[in-house]
Amino acid sequence: MQPVSQMHAQSAVAEAEAVYRYSVELPTWHTLSEMEQRVLQAVSADGGTADPYQIAKRVQGAPSSLKTAEDRLIDKACLSANDDGTVSLTGFIGAGTIRELAGRLGAYIEAAEAIRPRTVAFQKCNAYMPRVQAYCVLGRGHAGGHRSK
Ligand SMILES: [Zn+2]
Predict the structure, then answer these.
(1) What is the C-alpha separation between 79 and 59, in angstroms, rounded?
(2) Rounded to the nearest whole angstrom, what is the distance from the C-alpha of residue 71 to the centroid of ligand 1?
(3) Chain-wide mean pLDDT for the chain?
(4) CA 131 – ligand 1 centroid, Å
(5) For 124-136, how does the pLDDT look when each residue is reduced to its tens digit (9 = 90+)?
C-alpha cells in the first residue's frame, strides 16, 4: 500500500470540512432565528464562552427573548450550559463559520441602520445674525433666510 502523502491527507481534511460545512453547519445555521444567530455570534465574539451579561451587552432584545434563544441553542446542540451560568460554543457550528455567517448578518444590520432615516440629535444652523444679535435656530442646511425664533 502506498503511504498517504501529506498533501493527500490535507486535501482529505479540507474535503471533510467542506462536507461538514454544507451538510451540518449551514443547514443548522439556517434553522436558527435571527435572535438565535445573534446570541451565537455574541458567544463566539466573547471567545466561545459568555455569561448573560456579556450576551445582553452585544444583543439588544428583551431578557425573555435572549433566554429563549439561549435555550433553543442548547436544544440544538449549538451551545452548552456550564455550571457557573455561562454558555459555551459546542463546535457543532464551528467558530469560524459563525464569524463568517454572522459577519454577513452584521453587514445587513449596518446597512439597515445606514438606510434608516437619521434620528441623530437636531443640529442647529447657528449662523449669527448681527442685526438682531442672535443665532439662527433653524436646522443646519435649512432653506430660506435665518431666523432667531
Ligand atoms: Zn440659519
Answers:
(1) 16
(2) 54
(3) 88
(4) 14
(5) 888 998 888 889 9
- Per-residue pLDDT at 113: 77
Q: Which residues contact 65 (CB under 8 A, 6 or more apart)?
A: 35
**pLDDT of 41-93, one tens digit each?**
999 999 999 999 999 999 989 999 999 999 999 999 999 999 999 999 999 99
Which CATH number does 6-116 carry? 1.10.10.10
Q: 123 burial class (0-12, 13-18, 19+ CB within 10 angstroms)?
A: exposed
Q: For residue 144, report the distance from its CA to the centre of ligand 1, in Å.
A: 8
Residues around ligand 1, an ion, CB closer than 5 A: 125, 127, 136, 138, 146
Left (φ > 0), alpha (ψ -120 to 50) or beta: where does 83 sit?
alpha
Task: Give me 146's grid cell.
Answer: 435665518
Residue 140 main-chain phi, psi, to 5 deg: -55, 135
- Judge whether 125 and 147 are in contact, CB under 8 Å: no
Q: Would you kindly state where each structural domain of the chain is located, as residue ranges? A: 6-116, 118-149
Cell numbers describing residue 38: 445573534
